[in-house]
Sequence to fold (245 residues):
Amino acid sequence: MRRKLVAGNWKMNGNLAMLAELDVIAAAAAAHPGVDVAVAVPATLIAAAASRVPTLAIGAEDVHEAESGAYTGCVSAAMVREAGARFTIVGHSERREYQNETSQDAWAKAAAARRQGLSVILCCGETGAERDAGRAERVVQAQIEKSLPEGASGDWLTIAYEPRWAIGTGRTPTLEDIAAIHAIARAKIRQLIGAAADDVRILYGGSVTGDNARAIMGVADVDGALVGGASLTAAKFVPIIEGAV
Ligand code: 13P
Fold:
């Protein structure tokens, strides 16, 4: 049985004052011990967040694939781990879009994170044009094939399916479309790592709210949600945690 995971992604939002939201989120997580709750925050907030709410899994939004070196402005997995991160997101569509990252980059970053003992949320998802062209399933299959790291297993790796056209738009795929992609993602992972695929959680992300969370997380093979905008306040995020119960 896979436990549901509700993960927030603050993206480039937040400051020290906003960490007060995490107090309420941590209390909601404690009240629902059957659900795993995590929040990825900007690198500048990891240390303060991790020490403020030690019971909540605080993570990074990205890491560099190298352990250290001349990479101005980048942050390594060792650095975020030392700051208190327990996991990192890699391959987010915004990294792919604005930093030109590829599935190969996501693969290398996932491996680097794993070497530092971090859990990983590995993102995939098609663009609107790819969906309109009927290529969504093939795009997601190819992304998983290229980015699934060595030794992938459910105790440290989670996949997040985030259709780019659904991120921050208020639009979501139909439940049938979500089910179809999660099923082909599961099948692809099974093809790559065998029966261990059944322990790998596959989250849905893209305009998840307190209103649609329960229905989306009720779909077969949807093991939780990766939440952007609605993770920025406890008032919006806690109902999503409750929707996972
Ligand atoms: P929204 O929930 O704001 O659509 O963002 C989803 C996302 O990109 C989470 O990583």
User: Anything to note?
Assistant: Residues 9, 92, 162, 167-168, 205-208, 226-230 surround 1,3-dihydroxyacetonephosphate (CB under 6 Å). Residues 175-193 form the longest helix (19 residues). The longest strand covers residues 4-9. The mean pLDDT is 98.
